[in-house]
Amino acid sequence: MVDQARARRLAKRISSIVATAIEYEVKDPRLRFVTITDAKVTGDLREATVYYTVMGETLDAEPDYASAASGLQKATGVLRSKVGAGTGVKFTPTLAFVLDKVPDAAREMEELLARARASDDAVARTAANATHAGDSDPYKVERDSAE
Fold first, then answer.
1. Cβ-Cβ contacts under 8 Å for 15 (sequence gap 6 or more)
2. Cβ of 22: how many Cβ atoms within 10 Å?
3. Which is nearest to 53 in space by CA: 18, 8, 110, 98?
């Protein structure tokens, strides 16, 4: 029987252990700008998927995804032994690292929303100076026959 609550707790603990180990214990310069965002563990607690993002050295610099992935691949054994020591489970889960696309998707969504706001502002400016195309009162009015 799968205990989803236990898997979630273990995933949270794994992400914490891996993030701490990358920051303080693994001395690989390729992992300087790697941030652990989430982890998921299978129901049998045998495999863990760790999601990460990579920042650039500056705000304008493009992140080096390839070197971060190779650094994580090289450090997988050390990180797995840290997870085993830190969790105390009978079988230490295997670690798979996956680049997290959520921040990129969020940034793209923000750009789309900004373009939509600009378009709405342009329509509002055009509508502010617009006049009706036709009679001021377009509805039919019953006229008295005495008029």
1. 36, 37, 38, 39, 50
2. 23
3. 98
